[in-house]
Design brief:
Shape: globular
Strand content: 15-25%
CATH class: Alpha Beta
Number of domains: 1
Order of helices and strands: HEEEHEHEHEHHHHEEHHEHEHH
Number of strands: 10
Largest sheet: 8 strands, mixed
Distance between the termini: 39 Å
Length: 314
């Protein structure tokens, strides 16, 4: 899961430092699931409506620090560490190629004795939230999808990855600087892979340097000690291709879709329109001056959307 013990220590040091920046008291909680123990950071009134926060690939609970602060004034917030991803959950990643992730979230809800919950996810975490709502609508109060995958064919940012990320993957400090956006404008649409949030940029840099993404995605074959190219194609299909229209049409929960105007994977206006046509009742918001990580680039604006949406569920 980690390339070295020192890499693990570097990531967990970042985790603890970032957790300490959460502006409200949080409780560290573990529950048992079919993928082992799942860890989460919990905040907010015990009798508040529950909100589960699901990070993207290589993400973890403290990245929601600003959302935990704002949402916990109104809701009981559970920010999850995904098994097999950086954080305190067990190193047993669910598969992206079946319903494992939805089953994992259901296990979490069952362990917490929560019948129905609001769900918010970012990037691939938003795809998890969407699939949960489709497969188990009775367990969902509403779903907020923040820069999700799975809604349309996406652009693969190969040029950015090869020219920026891979060249600096051995230097976390240099990569952090390169991933910290100086601006997000129309001139950089589809070309900015960065974020205004230096804490997120640091996490991305540390994970690129120290974390086995191939292992967590289930594409590394332990027997041959090589990446399985066929599994790579299947996982990429999940990330960068649309779910079938018939599946998307089954989405019937109150839904909020949020894109940054300079989303690197899609044209947000076209994809937002397509999603709304397939998922009736979906509320679509496009945030100016934000990229793929709109929830991190413009936290105050997006947090206000989330609070309003969860309170009104439409």
């Amino acid at each position: 899961m980690y390339r070295s013990e020192s890499g693990f220590n570097a990531i967990m040091s970042w985790y603890e430092d970032t957790e300490a920046k959460i502006p409200v008291p949080v409780e560290s909680v573990f529950v048992e699931t079919r993928f082992g123990r799942t860890h989460m950071l919990v905040a907010g009134p015990v009798d508040g409506e529950p909100v589960l926060l699901i990070p993207g690939v290589a993400g973890c609970a403290p990245l929601w620090r600003r959302q935990i602060g704002d949402l916990s004034r109104h809701f009981r917030v559970y920010a999850l560490d995904i098994p097999g991803q950086p954080g305190r959950s067990d190193p047993n990643p669910p598969s992206f190629l079946d319903d494992d992730y939805a089953c994992w979230v259901l296990d979490v809800l069952d362990a917490l004795e929560i019948q129905r919950s609001h769900i918010a996810g970012v990037s691939v975490g938003a795809w998890v939230a969407m699939r949960l709502a489709i497969l188990a609508p009775g367990r969902v109060l509403s779903v907020a999808m923040l820069g999700p995958t799975g809604l349309s064919r996406a652009r693969l940012p190969w040029r950015i990855w090869l020219t920026r990320v891979m060249k600096k993957s051995k230097d976390a400090d240099a990569l952090q600087d390169d991933l910290t956006a100086k601006s997000v404008s129309s001139k950089s649409a589809g070309g900015s892979f960065g974020t205004f949030d230096r804490t997120l940029a640091r996490a991305m840099a540390l994970c690129t340097r120290h974390y086995r993404v191939d292992w967590s995605l289930g594409i590394y074959d332990e027997r041959t000690r090589r990446v399985d190219k066929w599994k790579v194609l299947k996982v990429l299909g999940k990330f960068f291709m649309s779910e079938p229209k018939a599946l998307l049409r089954r989405f019937a929960s109150p839904g909020l879709l949020v894109f940054g105007e300079q989303e690197v994977l899609y044209d947000p206006h076209k994809v937002g329109k397509r999603a709304a046509s397939l998922m009736p009742g979906l509320r679509v918001e496009i945030v100016p001056g934000a990229g793929h990580a709109a929830v991190y680039d413009k936290p105050d604006e997006v947090n206000a959307m989330l609070v309003d949406f969860f309170k009104n569920r439409s």
